[in-house]
Each structure stands twice: as C-alpha cells, then as structure tokens.
Design a protein that fits this description.
The structure holds 2 protein chains of 2 kinds. In chain A, 36% of the residues are buried. Chain A is an all-alpha fold. Chain A is built from 12 helices and no strands. By secondary structure, chain B is of the alpha/beta class. Helices cover 44% and strands 17% of the residues of chain B. Chain B has helices at 2-25, 38-51, 64-74, 85-93, 146-158, 161-167, 175-183, 194-197, 230-241, 243-251, 274-288, 296-299, 303-311; strands spanning 27-34, 55-62, 79-81, 108-117, 137-140, 168-172, 189-193, 204-208, 216-219, 222-223. In chain B, strand 1, helix 2 and strand 2 form a beta-alpha-beta unit. In chain B, helix 11 runs parallel beside helix 13. The chains are: A mainly alpha, B alpha/beta. Chains A and B meet through helix 2, helix 5, helix 11 and helix 12 of A and helix 1, strand 1, helix 2, strand 2 and helix 3 of B.
C-alpha cells in the first residue's frame, strides 16, 4: 500500500522524524551496552541467576496470557457481537484495569484474598495466597484479562458479520459458527493481540510490588528484579537484565510477524 | 476423546491440591523486610535454612514505606524488619507488634557517611563543605525516607541548613536514588548510610563524617502479633540477633557494636565506629586500585564485598 515517492518536503520530513526517533532508541540501547562493557556483558549473561529469572518471566507471562485468552476471547466476542442490557456499562467496567494504574489492582487484590473463602483456604493449607508465584500469576492475569478482552473485541470487530449470517443460514449452530468461521478468520488478529498481552504481562511489576513483594528466585520476574537491583546499586545487573528484556521483546515481535500475526495496530 | 478430557481435568485439579499440600508441608515464614537489607538477609536466610531444614524463609522485599499498608490490610506475616525504627514504631502503635524491646531487638545500625563522585570534583572533606557555593547537593525527602530527616538534623546542627537547601538540586524518595545519582555524577555530594555507600565502591569516594555529626540509626526486628509460626519466627529473630547473625550484617557495612554511645539526637559521642569507617574508606580504595592489599587489617569484614565488586566494572552478583 506504499505510496509512490513523488518528491517534495513533506515525505522527507516524515521519514526524517522517524529516523530521529529510531536514532534515539538505538542510542539508548547502545550507550547502555557500552556502559556495561563487553567483559561484564559476558559475565552477567553467563550467570544462572539471569536465566532463571528469564524463564520465570517467560513461563509466568505465558500461563497468565493463556488464562487471559480463555476469558478474553469469549468476552471480546460478546462485546463485539451481542446486544445485552447495560452493554456500555459492562464494557467500561471491563476497561477499568486498562485505565487505572496496576498499583491500584495490587492494592485491591488484598481485599479479595484476605476474606472469605480465601482466608479459610490459606489457613487450611498453611499458605499465604499471593505471596508466591501464584500471586504473580494472579496479578498478571487481573491486569491483562481486560486488555485481552479489549484487543479481542477489536479483532472480532474487523470481521464482517455477513460471514456469520451466511453460516447461520446454512444451518450451523452459533457454537459451530464461532469455531469454524469466526475464529479462523480472526486468527491473525488474535496472534497479534496475544503478543501484546504477553508483553504486558511480562512487564508488570507495580501490582507485584504492592501485592506480592519479592522473594528472590520465586516471584521476582525481570522488571521487578531490575527494580530490586536498582535499589541495591547493582548497575551491572540492571543494565544486563534490561538488555535481555529488549532482546526478549524483539524476539516476541519477530515471532509474531513470522507466524502471521496481523491486526490494526501491527 | 471424552475419557482423555476427563483425565486432563482430573489431573489439573489433583495437581492443584497436591501443590497446595506440598507447599503446606514445610513451615514457611513470611518475612517483611526492607529492600536495603536484601544482601545481608539473603545470606542469613541461606545459613538459617541449612541449619533448620524444616523452615523456609520467604521474604517480601518492598520499600519500607509500603509495609504498613500491606500489614494493615493483609494481617499477614511472621517477621518484620523495615529500614528504620520509625516504620516499626508505626506497627507497634497499631498493635501489630506487642513485644518489641528497643534495648535488645536491634541487630545492627546504619552510620551516615558522605559520598561524592569518583575523584571528588568539588573537594568535599567535611560537613561544612556542603554549604560552599556551586556544590550540587543531593538530599532525601524527609516525608518518604529517613535520610531526609537526618540531612535536616545534621545540617541544622552544623548551622548551614539554609545554605545547603539553596545548594540542593535533588530531593530523593529513597536512599538508593542518592547513591545512583552520585554514581552517575548528577550530584557533587550527599549523605547516605554506610550500607548504601558500600554498594558503589568503584564509582564513589567515601568520606567519613566527624563524630559530632555522625548519625547512628537503629535498625530493629520484631515478630508480628499474627505470626503463623511464632516459635520458628522467634528462632529466626534470635539468630539475627545472635553474634553470628550480627557478623553477617557487619560484612555489609552495618555497625554491629552492642553499645554505641549517642546523644539524645542520635549523633555519635565517641570513636566506637571509627574503625568501621576506616575499613570502608580502605574498601573503596581497594576496589579502585587492584594493587591495594585486601586483608583483615585493611578492610575488616568487608573483604567479600570488595572481592565481589572487583570482579566486574558494573556492580552485580
């Protein structure tokens, strides 16, 4: 869909602006990498602590994204297709976790997990709900579920209703229509949204800070670990872990492009 | 197909319960601890868990300001060790800590020191130098961190508070911000705890403060009222207060003398902490200069810290 180049100052200005922002981002990465130095990069990248935290981040984000998708796909479909009472009210309540700070979610989660029936469960099993890796999953899920539903709605909105109408007229049930017609058509949008949701989950830490707290090796996913090490003056860990986060983000976006994710934001 | 689905669901539910039980099998303590104590407490946890295999210690590291809200709301936790006595007193006032004894429950102390960027560009040697025109001073915000309160106390005692306020270019929310700013040369001088200064041996200069302006800050620990495993929590607290526990704090530049004479404001009265200050200054030299001898005589218990920071240019590990 690219426009043919027709000269003039406006395209040059636009491309130039893009170039400036690109240069700024590249400068951010390279200057920090130079600050870290090659010797230290190798040192920190070869530490098992780095990769334990990396896997912790990857698997928690993956589990919570899967849970979000289980909720988000039906919810997004409902918001996109069905008319039900108080639809706008429901939609704006679902949007809440997107617009309020994740810190609020962290603070509010206390309200649920310390009351009936959760206080019984935690008493019976002798555990503290939310002080372990399940707390991390809970925070990530709560923050991303809304996000996921919203993105899924956008994906389903892009598909014309006609196809479903045809499917219905040919005698398919709504259930069959959804899985055989709508879902395959929304596939690319869903993949693209999935990556956004995953990245959001992997970057979450404000809620964790309030609700979970850090137990090293158990609940300190990368963004949280970066904050902890920043507080401990460990600039080496801060910089090297940030670089790993950037590499992680680049691979996630490329993976999405390769498997064909496409939506109106990508 | 249906059988498989049932099996998967069954396995999922079963593993959830099993996981819960496995978790409940051992006694795991929830320990609310200030971020700043991370290095020392992780070391203590390692030794304590080895000696008591049936007890697990789970830290909930946060900024000290977050604790009181967490504890008020959740009523959870076994032990509490915030970064300053002030935060512990908040818990005592609200009745969360019933048996706190200020005379015995202090395992370690913070000591104030001056730090400047490497090379000390503005040639800061004493408290009065903070008032020199053109010195960019970093202060703590007294509303959010204890160093801010100590800044005010110290400079007021020296009679230069107004001049220092003029010079201040930064009001930090937490003490590591001051350390990081000095490391990155954003400020010329600031006051921090010795435990903070020791994290930046390679990138800052450490200047001990003369006795009458040297602050001694108490760092308490306590067992919370709603502790689930009171005996085990008490055991860990006793370990922290023991000679062995204190020696671990000493390795991270806390002062651990059982008695440090102070005046009613908390400033040093004698040379009890002088030796520690000398070790700290030597440690900063040793990390910057590979030829500096690293022995018990030169850096005391800071040996491990020096060797750790010598390994890399950017502190870590």
């Amino acid at each position: 869909m690219a426009l043919k180049h027709r000269g003039g100052w406006w395209p040059v200005l636009c491309i130039g602006t893009t170039g400036i922002i690109l240069a700024v981002y590249l400068l951010l990465v390279t200057s920090n990498w130079i600050y870290l130095g090659w010797h230290d990069t190798l040192y920190f990248f070869s530490k098992s602590r780095m990769w334990e935290r990396f896997w912790l981040t990857v698997w928690t984000a993956t589990v919570s994204t899967s849970l979000s998708l289980l909720i988000g796909i039906p919810a997004g479909y409902a918001l996109s297709r069905f008319r039900f009472p108080c639809r706008y009210l429901v939609a704006s309540i679902i949007d809440l976790p997107i617009v309020v700070s994740p810190a609020v979610i962290g603070a509010f989660l206390f309200g649920i997990t310390t009351r009936f029936p959760f206080d019984w469960i935690s008493e019976y099993y002798g555990i503290y709900i939310g002080r372990n890796v399940y707390g991390v999953l809970l925070v990530q899920f709560t923050v991303t579920a809304a996000f996921c539903a919203r993105l899924m709605k956008a994906s389903f909105d892009m598909i014309p209703v006609r196809f479903e109408a045809v499917s219905h007229s040919l005698g398919a049930s709504p259930f069959r229509t959804f899985f055989k017609v709508v879902l395959p058509m929304a596939k690319n949008g869903i993949i693209a949204s999935m990556i956004v949701v995953w990245a959001r989950a992997a970057a979450e830490w404000e809620g964790l800070m309030l609700f979970v707290g850090a137990t090293e090796g158990k609940t300190d996913i990368m963004p949280f670990a970066i904050y902890l090490d920043w507080n401990g003056g460990m600039m080496g860990w801060v910089t090297s872990m940030s670089l790993v986060c950037i590499l992680m983000a680049i691979s996630a976006i490329s993976a999405m492009k390769i498997i064909g994710g496409k939506s109106n934001v990508w | 197909m249906k059988l498989m689905k049932t099996m998967v669901v069954f396995l999922l539910v079963y593993s959830l319960f099993l996981g819960g039980q496995a978790y409940g099998g051992e006694k795991s303590l929830l320990f609310h601890a200030g971020l700043g104590q991370r290095g020392a407490l992780n070391e203590i946890k390692g030794i304590f868990e080895e000696e008591n295999p049936d007890i697990k210690v789970n830290f909930s590291y946060k900024g000290s300001g977050y604790f009181i809200a967490d504890i008020t709301r959740s009523k959870q936790g076994d032990l509490f060790m915030p970064g300053e006595e002030f935060y512990l007193m908040q818990a005592v006032e609200r009745g969360f800590l019933t048996d706190y004894d200020p005379t015995t429950d202090i395992p370690a102390y913070f000591v104030t020191v001056i730090i400047t960027p490497k090379g000390n560009p503005k040639n800061i040697t004493k408290i009065e130098d903070f008032a020199k025109p053109g010195v960019r001073v970093g202060l703590g915000n007294p509303k959010s961190c204890a160093i801010g309160i100590w800044d005010e106390k110290t400079f007021k005692k020296a009679g230069i508070w107004n001049e220092v306020k003029e010079n201040a270019t930064m009001s930090a929310k937490c003490i590591p911000e001051l350390g990081n700013a000095t490391q990155h040369r954003a400020i010329d001088a600031t006051i921090v705890w010795a435990t903070t200064a020791v994290l930046y041996l390679r990138d800052v200069e450490i200047i001990p403060i003369e006795q009458k302006y040297r602050g001694i800050i108490r760092l308490p620990v306590g067992v919370l009222k709603f502790a689930r495993y009171r005996d085990e929590a008490q055991k860990l607290m006793d370990y922290i207060l023991s000679e062995q526990g204190r020696s671990i704090f000493h390795k991270h530049a806390y002062a651990v003398n059982s008695v440090i004479p102070v005046d009613n404001q908390g400033f040093c009265l004698d040379g009890t902490t002088d030796q520690d200050m000398e070790y700290l200054v030597n440690a900063a030299k040793a990390v910057k200069d590979e030829s500096f001898p690293v022995t018990e005589e030169t850096v005391g218990d800071l040996i491990e810290e020096v060797l750790r920071q010598r390994k890399t240019t950017r502190a870590g590990d």
